[in-house]
Recover the amino acids of this structure.
């Protein structure tokens, strides 16, 4: 092996780009609904969940259960979850005596 062979090997390593692994997103798991009954599978994609309290879809692809817990702590969810019982009126209020 000569010095030029060693230089050629070093150049070959530099020319090859490092391959990045593709990002793998987490999918909705039924366990989310077991822990949080208001969470359902979303029709948007398998990487989303649907909150029945907020009536919105949110992504679970990056954090999975962490994303669900993050959504449960959002102001939007806390306000809607807290006001759900107080704004509900009994059905009798909508009926009239005839």
């Amino acid at each position: 092996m000569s010095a030029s062979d060693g230089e050629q090997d070093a150049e070959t390593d530099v020319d090859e780009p490092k391959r990045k692994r593709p990002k793998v997103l987490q999918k909705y798991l039924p366990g989310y609904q077991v822990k949080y009954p208001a969470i359902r599978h979303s029709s948007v994609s398998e990487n989303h969940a649907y909150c029945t309290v907020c009536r919105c879809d949110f992504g679970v692809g990056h954090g999975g259960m962490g994303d669900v817990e993050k959504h449960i702590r959002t102001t939007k969810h806390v306000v809607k979850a807290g006001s759900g019982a107080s704004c509900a009126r009994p059905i009798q209020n909508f009926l009239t005596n005839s």
Remarks:
- The chain has a mean pLDDT of 82.
- The first strand starts at residue 39 and ends at 41.
- The two ends are 105 Å apart (CA to CA).
